[in-house]
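Follow-up to my earlier ticket, as requested here are the two runs.
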Amino acid sequence: MSSPEGKKIRKISRGVLDYLVTSLPPETLLQLYTEETRGKFVCRVVLQRALSPVAQHIVVRLNSTGGSFPVSGIQVWSKVKPEKIWQELQMWAILNSVNSGDQMVSLTPEFQTGLRACLCCLDASPWQPVTPVQIALIERETGEHVGAVTPEDLERYTQSRWDSVLHFLVGSTGQQEPPSAVVSFLLQTGLMQPDPEFLGAEDEAPLVITEKGYDFMLQDNHQQVWHFVVQYLQSLEAHEKGPRLVQENLLLLICLSFARVGEAYLTSSLSKDGRVMVKDLALFGLLYTKKVGKNITLFYPTRVAMQLMGNDDAHDARGSALWALSSKALDTALAHPTPHDSSHLAIIVQTNFQLCAYTTSELHVNMLGLFCDIGTIRRLPNIVFMSVTRDSVKSAFAMGIQARQILRFLEKHAHPNLRSTGGGGSSVPTNVVDQIWLWDRERVRVQFTEVYQHQCLMPGEYAAVEEFARDRDGSMWSSERRQQIFLDYGQVENVQTFVRQWRAKMAEAAICRS
């Protein structure tokens, strides 16, 4: 088996790790491994978060044996078929090509160099966080108060960024328009389009949401941010220095995954291109930046930045910690004695199809109105009641929203008490889940096929035409008593040609008999 060569076919990625193997050639991966100061962190993230436990075991053993080892010896290390391990490691440009006749397996020099630096490095993060002593010195030097930024503050900041995007998607009035870079993204990715029904000049047409935009709107924040990041990477590829800028951005994103939420870092520790990218990523809610004085800028990674690797979930320690940050911010908002924060949404779906949403945001009401009955809405200061009905769900289907998207949205925004007591099951009642799927299947219970009605006129014509059409899967329905055959429109021309030839043949035979 040989390693893939050239540019890989671009597939849909779910995070940075997926992007590395689906959208980049192996040569770029090797360059990332050998980057002077940050390559060791690329090797660390691949080793810890991308490889299977068996592959990790083999890589570390290979490194301890000098980077190469006989194939027969490696087969003793694990019960897993070695071909699967070779394929996984070659996908990440970790192993040199392995053929059936090879006696030795060896690590690529680039990865081996980066791995050795990784194993010898004790730094938990590529950048040193700003300590309280440094903060005090900065405040004394600039005469400005820096202030503490808590993880809850960062949660609200990220949510506010996306609230402005979602308000723009649904066309909310009285809201500030997002930055032009975000609007450009919405157009380039097909989430919005100029109103096709606008009668004026095309460049003056207002933007309206598309079916793809509805799917985007009902996704998690970190999934939405990743769409933006992919678009940002593609825009860098079109630049004159595209490959170098893409590598710099990927290195920055990988290094962010080793930072800590709520800690401050100096932009002066970044490269020149990195400082520009920090400003761009702040537009997406990945980072929070704070300028102190004229020359000092601090940046704070958010929880969403930690989740961009694409493989963190609530089942591992890191994913649990990140999930806890989101839950803590939501719990704080819900426990406050008076409604004060509109950036969170907590939903309880009852078995009678009534939906209770703890929110003070008009945006959330508009989003729920996509698949709930607006006519049943009732409001309290911090809670909204709606009902999920057949007509409201069918209207959502007509807009291009799917049943899985509705259920995913309800589960992702479930009230914390439902998440903690769910026992691993869905936070949406079973009867509601089943009914939404049944409403979805109503759309495919009957399939409409355009047909052509053929009326048989001569004795024996029905049997001959029916057999001819059935052999070509063109007979949709037929009645011998009525002498009628309903034909699929795709086979009409062939059947009519056959009928003309058959009738001519029967007429000729009748003349001969007479």
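Run two:
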Amino acid sequence: MTDLASESRNVAAADVVGDDDATAWAACSRCHSVIYGKRFDRQLRVCAECGSHERLTARERACQLFDPGSWEVVDLGITPSDCLGWVDTKPYVQRIDDARALTGMPSAVLCVRGTVERHEIIAAIMDFRFLGGSLSSAAGEIITVAAEIALRDRIPLLIVSASGGARMQEGAMSLMQMAKTNQALADLNDAGILSVSLVTDPTYGGVAASHATACDIVLSEPAARMGFAGPRVIQQTIRQELPKDFQTAESLLEQGFIDQIVPRSDLRHTLARLFDMVHTPPGSAPKAAGPDPVIRDPAALPEREPWSVVEMARHLERPTTYDYVAALVDGFVELRGDRVSGDCPAIVGGVGVLDGLPVMVIGHQKGHSVRELTAHNFAMPSPAGYRKAARLMRLAGKLGLPIITLVDTPGAYPGLEAERNGQAFAISDNLVLMAGLPVPIVAVVTGEGGSGGALALAVANTVLLCSNAIYSVISPEGCAAILWRDRAAAPEAAAQLGLDAHRLLRLGIVDGVLPEPEGGTQNDHPRASAMLRDGLVHALRELLPLDPARLRRERHARFRKFGQVALGDELS
């Protein structure tokens, strides 16, 4: 266990004042506000004054997460054992007995089965009161068996973590549980079964370095702390003062390690929206849309002055990915972080439902003001953005979710840190990944499609382009600076680059063009969204019947044809 294990002496984070249940009061552990006990319970043990999420027992957690009356404890008959005959200031067997008496639980993990807004799941819920929630062989076995039940019955797995780390009193036997639990999660991954981790305070050591972070999606309660080494150990080792927000959920989100911070009052609904993604009947397709608006004949498109199209594509009021998602996708849950270095705001993504069909939506995010553009780095992704997109696409491939990408970027971020962090490798990895994904992919260039930064989200079965959007190997300004040695020649470069809808469709770079409302998408967001919806629905209805092998084969053939020379001709 880490240095947090000593906290297991606390029965609860909030002290109870008074003996009479009818008049019991509780004191917040953070701000020390005194709260009427029953009111505190109604608030899900969240302090109304400071927002502190006090610790819950495993049973309290089950009551809050599962539908009332729907859950039951799965009695696996698994209890801790003293494999080393351990004695410190007290025999280990005595510590186990004391923990059982305190918690009313046979071990530190409760296995629970029930429904969350009617979705059947199985959960392994850790209880910090039981020897600091430390990972014993019994705790590891319960988590593993819960995963095996999820695998057998093909239902999602939820793991709620609260732990000081591995249980020292079981030596290397405890260490082995890290590998065992992650091995069980790998089996779920291979079978396409969703796993969700909920990090609560605190989650440290061997638990943080195994099942708490190995799930498909990692959620956290506000201010929950998670890390491998505890803060006291780190301070003693490096002899440095740690930042105030060190290892908190808020800093972990910024660093790209978790998907969302979810207040306790929203947890059940958020989990239900995630579980919606994996309860799609076989053969499901989007509901019927209006007529297919996509133009596939270049002759039906007017030839336009390319520079005017460039200016239209860059208009600040054109709908962004967030705008389109809000208009088209129900129950959207944004997923964040690349699990390596950060959460790039230039690419956003998550799961939701498009006309009855669960989908993964990933797109570049610009903004409608300088402030929004700056917050999203002008839609120029860092390597973390492409790695985040790759993580979400792999999850979509695992769960069988169609992928929709919305492309609108001047290009990948050309910065020092981006190069140091492997920008070229991140883009290249996405190109390889998308080529082999087993699910339908539809990409739509909604504004600017700039260079490899755009292509990294556009290796798709079907590529569509909004009629006032552009798609090019380089920006007109960049091309002019290199070839004309004068950025003022950008309009001439735009005319030469073939970046407008008419020429892109004629060359087969895009498969179709989505008409825009009069004056452009910026003039009528609802109409633009309706056009996009109809185009996406028709594209998906064509792709969904295809098996994974054919999807990959057709995607490969789509890109193989560009500049194709037959091998026999090349050698003659």
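The only thing I checked on run two: The two ends are 71 Å apart (CA to CA). Let me know what else you need.
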